[in-house]
Write a structure and sequence with these properties.
The chain is an alpha+beta fold. 49% of the residues lie in helices and 16% in strands.
Length: 385
């Protein structure tokens, strides 16, 4: 039912699955329970080249498209792993590759591809603005040969596990712009020498390594400005579309994991003299969720294909994220219900994946905002926010 994959893409699936097989459920159970960062897993993916598939070959990467990146992300989550530990290195490429300077690419991409640098932090969200990105208050003011940044970000992932951060800040005061999306700029922040930057871990429901970040006169060299000053909001959208496609792929991977676990458990568990799966009340939600996951996979591949062809894909990327996260959540509920009380036992891993996949309905963008986007920009309905 899914889009037919090429031989190369099938080989990618198999190779990623092999890497993931070295990190079984016990590994992820320990990482989750201890709140650790899966450094060994991320290093293994990096060494195998799977986190650099979007980086051009001339810079040491795979030179592949978002379609292949989506396959990688799906396989990671389908194996029971959590690709949130490393997915930012993929979706930030949408901004850096299309809008970064040649000097920035030569300086950073080979190091990222080789695993000597990590670009896993993406600083956009702020405490007061929330999903209203145009209300960001973090400022970057030009002073001589650098920009000076002041402000605060929240829900910024993997700051403590990254060398580089992609930052969105306001470079033109809001009162001086005619459009609310104007006046923003994107910067590459080198976290290794960012004086005045204070990152504080946030305790979360999932093991996601999230930070509050405070900028106190942090200096960023002019050469680390991505693209043109004031056009950063548009640049970030390229990253957002890739992000939605890849997050959809993670949800699809989760959905298949839940379906496979639910089928295996309910087909083997016997109670009242019959297999659980013989009861339609158990089997039908699993089958329904499987159908939803497969349908979401199709629109995900369509979105990825359009991005790779440099065609507009905002609608498709948003629909993919919406439908995939809903499908995965349906599969999660069917799986947990099928397991009964054992679904809450950590040794079965269902509760861990249950928590992880719920996040995908909320982040990186709420599904309500996705619906608002589709209503306004696709269906032509009045703006609701």
């Amino acid at each position: 039912m899914t889009t037919a994959l090429s031989q190369e893409q099938t080989e990618i699936q198999s190779a990623v699955r092999q890497v993931c097989s070295r990190f079984p459920d016990e590994y992820w159970r320990h990482v989750d329970g201890s709140g650790a960062y899966p450094d060994e897993f991320v290093s293994a993916l990096t060494e195998a080249g799977w986190l650099s598939v979007l980086i051009p070959q001339e810079f040491g990467g795979g030179g592949l498209g978002v379609t292949e990146a989506a396959i990688v992300m799906e396989e990671i989550n389908r194996a029971g792993a959590n690709s949130a530990a490393c997915h930012a290195q993929m979706y930030t490429m949408g901004t850096l590759l299309r809008h970064g300077s040649e000097e920035q690419k030569r300086r950073y991409l080979p190091e990222i591809a080789a695993g000597r640098l990590r670009l896993q932090a993406f600083a956009v969200t702020e405490p007061d603005a929330g999903s209203d990105t145009t209300r960001l208050r973090t400022t970057a003011v030009r002073r001589g040969d650098c920009y000076v940044v002041n402000g605060q970000k929240v829900f910024t992932s993997r700051v403590g596990q990254s060398d580089l951060m992609l930052l969105l800040a306001r470079t033109t005061p809001i009162k001086s712009v005619t459009e609310r999306t104007a006046g923003f700029s994107v910067f590459l922040v080198d976290l290794r020498d960012a004086e005045g930057l204070d990152a504080r871990p946030m305790a979360m429901m999932v093991n996601h390594h999230v930070y509050e970040v405070f900028f106190n006169d942090v200096k960023i060299p002019i050469r680390n400005l991505v693209g043109e000053e004031g056009k950063g909001f548009r640049y970030i959208i390229d990253g957002w579309n890739v992000e939605r496609i890849l997050v959809a792929s993670e949800a699809i991977g989760d959905g298949h994991w839940f379906v496979q676990r639910a089928v295996k458990y309910s087909s083997g568990r016997e109670i009242f003299g019959r297999k659980l799966a013989e009861n339609q009340g158990v089997a039908f939600p699993i089958a329904q969720a499987y159908a939803q996951v497969e349908a979401a996979s199709l629109i995900r591949f369509e979105a990825a294909s359009r991005f790779d062809r440099q065609q507009p894909c905002g609608a498709e990327a948003n629909m993919a994220k919406l439908l995939a996260s809903q499908a995965s959540w349906a599969a999660a509920n069917a799986c947990l219900t099928a397991h009964g009380g054992y679904g809450f036992a950590r040794e079965y891993d269902v509760e861990r994946k249950f928590r992880e996949t719920k996040l995908l309905e909320i982040a990186p963008v709420s599904n309500n905002l996705v619906l608002a986007y589709l209503a306004q920009h696709v269906l032509g309905m009045p703006r609701s926010y």
